Amino acid sequence: MAHRWKNNLTRSDVTPHDIYLNRRQLLGGAAGLGLATLAGGKAQASELEPNSWEEIISYNNFYEFGTGKGDPAQHAHRLTTSPWTVTIDGMVDRPGDYKFDEIMAAMTIEERIYRFRCVEAWSMVIPWNGFELKDLLDLAGVQESAKYVAFETLYRPEEMVGQRFGTLDWPYVEGLRLDEAMHPLTLMATGIYGKTIPNQNGAPLRLVVPWKYGFKSIKSIVKITLTDKQPPTSWNKALGREYGFYSNVNPEVDHPRWSQATERRIGGGLFAKRIPTLMFNGYEKEVASLYEGMDLRRFY
Ligand SMILES: Nc1nc2c(c(=O)[nH]1)N[C@H]1C(S)=C(S)[C@@H](COP(=O)(O)O)O[C@H]1N2
Ligand SMILES: [Mo]
């Protein structure tokens, strides 16, 4: 395949790890005592304080390695992520198997500190490194007819021990509307805290859609398909009444079995108050226009 790669890799955009460590230390007692949810300015300042590396890599959902929060950290070391190719097909001008290294050479890696809100009502703040999904889709050349993007995770039960059980219908699949996929907030993450993304977080590349519940942010992607039909998604297939295609974070639309009005920030400490969940996870200004005129209760 003859690709013409843009050559604008700027790894120096990555902010060094120790800046965050220092900021955490500076924050001092308040965060440690779980008082980071005080009203007013203080809450604003600490609200985007990243979780620690240890928290981010030890409390995970990645059912390919088991359903416990500690299972991915325990089992994901068995996954081999090199070599890795991402098949991009469907309604694109340049379909093919894109080598991960070639993708990296073509992309601009930047840091994005995003809130991350799981549908289970816990959250973190994660300093991702990655590139905009739009840049990858542009590389493949999205055709006029495409309306949706479908994503697929690796299926390799020899290494992904959770895939030996029928917890979900493997491989894990997800999807976005094309305008959601092209949105500048939509990231393909390849790192955290300036380091290569750990296997349990979805190495070597995973989607991050910060205004949607975490399960939309599919990990360890091997296939991206441009299509004109809304693609099936794993959690919708498993429990369609509870998990819709859109899955936008919305404090006003509860899960059938629990409230989505508040969330527990991981690492907040034993006495931390739950914090209010923000519309579109705090990205309302950036993304609300994508859903203008849509009934968000119906399109959950
Ligand atoms: N392939 C795959 N992707 C996945 C999942 C999964 O089980 N398999 N879990 C999702 C859920 S429910 C969440 S909350 C996030 C968790 O990402 P993290 O472990 O990096 O915080 O990954 C999402 N992506
Ligand atoms: Mo989740």
TrEMBL record:
Its cofactor is Mo-molybdopterin. Its EC number is 1.8.5.-. Residues 80-235 form the Oxidoreductase molybdopterin-binding domain. Keywords: Metal-binding, Molybdenum, Oxidoreductase, Signal. Predicted to be exported by the Tat system. The position of the signal peptide cleavage has not been experimentally proven. GO terms for biological process: protein repair. Mo-molybdopterin binds at residues 60, 63-64, 118, 153, 201, 206, 217-219. It catalyses: L-methionyl-[protein] + a quinone + H2O = L-methionyl-(S)-S-oxide-[protein] + a quinol; L-methionyl-[protein] + a quinone + H2O = L-methionyl-(R)-S-oxide-[protein] + a quinol. Binds 1 Mo-molybdopterin (Mo-MPT) cofactor per subunit. It is an enzyme of class 1 (oxidoreductase). Coiled coil: none annotated. Heterodimer of a catalytic subunit (MsrP) and a heme-binding subunit (MsrQ). PANTHER family: PROTEIN-METHIONINE-SULFOXIDE REDUCTASE, PROTEIN-METHIONINE-SULFOXIDE REDUCTASE CATALYTIC SUBUNIT MSRP. Part of the MsrPQ system that repairs oxidized periplasmic proteins containing methionine sulfoxide residues (Met-O), using respiratory chain electrons. Thus protects these proteins from oxidative-stress damage caused by reactive species of oxygen and chlorine generated by the host defense mechanisms. MsrPQ is essential for the maintenance of envelope integrity under bleach stress, rescuing a wide series of structurally unrelated periplasmic proteins from methionine oxidation. This is Protein-methionine-sulfoxide reductase catalytic subunit MsrP. It comes from Cognatishimia maritima. The lineage of its organism: Bacteria, Pseudomonadati, Pseudomonadota, Alphaproteobacteria, Rhodobacterales. The gene is msrP.
